[in-house]
């Protein structure tokens, strides 16, 4: 009898291992970090495939890189200066500050931002970012996505997905797509490429995107706010969203769109509670 029980136990264990090993995951992984959603998943339940709740005392560098400075409006003040970053109580703080050491760095302002470039990218699925925005004249917090592989050429041919952008003291956010089709061919109404939604600035909100092979569905606090569809019969550059994208989250300052920075309003910060990607 004892031998029979042990044999049954072994059989149950082997069956469990077999079932677990055969579990169907909603994605394939390319290059060890690019999650491509399996086909025919649109009617299936979302499953978390990547997330960060910022529970460590420092930034998880297996997931994120601090965004280096660049010549674009949004990136000219980016830095890895620790004064622009903080993690505490399970939250990531990205800050825009007055530069107190212009001898070492002549830029008047410094800003913090992170991205997942070359560490995590995905194609199709759903992303949600739970965060709180602070306001200042010249503040431009953004959550967005860019193509990981740039298969169509130089920007803007690979597209840009702006999950959320906020300006100054506005009570609205912008949710937008950019591409060669919208920027160079000026096709901004066929279909409409951008929308705005009202938010309560004084609280945490969940900014999101559902990404399908034929449409981008923007969300706010779980509600659908704006859909950008793939359109037939137009220039192919209308839909570069058939390749993996990576995530950027940054507290930007200044630029031609947001306007000049009022340093008396600084520091300003964006507080990120968590980020989740589903497929």
Description:
This protein has 279 residues and is mainly beta. It has one domain (26-278): Sandwich (Jelly Rolls), CATH 2.60.120.200. The protein has 2 helices and 19 strands. The strands form 3 sheets. Strands 3, 5, 6, 7, 10, 15, 16, 17 and 19 form a 9-stranded antiparallel β-sheet that branches. A 7-stranded antiparallel β-sheet has the order 4-8-18-11-12-13-14. It has a 3-stranded mixed β-sheet with strand order 1-2-9, with no helix packed on it. A hairpin with a 3-residue loop joins strand 1 (27-30) and strand 2. The longest helix is centred in the N-terminal third of the chain and has 20 residues, at 2-21. The protein is globular and about 55 Å long. The termini are far apart.
The ordered string of helix (H) and strand (E) elements is HEEEEEEEEEEEEEHEEEEEE
Tell me, rounded to a whole number, the average pLDDT: 92
Strand proportion: 35-45%
Biggest beta-sheet profile = 9 strands, antiparallel
Distance between the termini: 47 Å
Low-confidence spans:
1-5, 10-22
CA radius of gyration is 21 Å
Secondary structure: number of strands: 19
Shape: globular
Which CATH architecture?
Sandwich
């Amino acid at each position: 009898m004892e031998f029979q029980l042990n044999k049954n136990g072994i059989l149950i264990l082997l069956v469990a291992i077999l079932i677990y090993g055969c579990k169907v995951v909603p994605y394939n992984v390319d290059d060890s970090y690019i999650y491509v959603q399996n086909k025919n998943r649109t009617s299936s339940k979302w499953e978390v495939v990547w997330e960060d709740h910022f529970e460590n005392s420092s930034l998880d560098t297996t997931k994120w890189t601090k965004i280096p400075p660049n010549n674009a409006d949004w990136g000219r003040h980016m830095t890895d200066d620790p004064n622009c970053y903080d993690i505490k109580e399970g939250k990531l703080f990205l800050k825009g500050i007055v530069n107190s050491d212009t001898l070492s760095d002549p830029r008047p302002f410094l800003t913090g931002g992170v991205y997942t470039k070359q560490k995590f990218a995905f194609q199709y699925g759903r992303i949600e970012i739970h965060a709180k925005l602070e306001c200042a004249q010249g503040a431009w917090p953004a959550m967005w996505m860019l193509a990981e592989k740039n298969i169509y050429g130089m920007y803007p041919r690979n597209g840009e997905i702006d999950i959320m952008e906020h300006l100054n003291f506005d009570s609205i956010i912008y949710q937008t797509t950019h591409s060669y089709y919208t920027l160079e061919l000026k096709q901004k109404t066929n279909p409409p490429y951008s929308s705005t939604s009202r938010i309560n600035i004084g609280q945490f909100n969940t900014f999101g995107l559902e990404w399908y092979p034929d449409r981008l569905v923007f969300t706010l606090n779980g509600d659908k706010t704006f859909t950008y569809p793939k359109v037939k019969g137009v220039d192919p550059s209308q839909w570069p969203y058939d390749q993996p994208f990576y995530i950027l989250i940054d507290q930007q300052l200044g630029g031609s769109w947001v306007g000049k920075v009022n340093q008396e309003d600084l520091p300003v910060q964006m507080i990120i509670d968590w980020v989740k990607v589903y497929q």
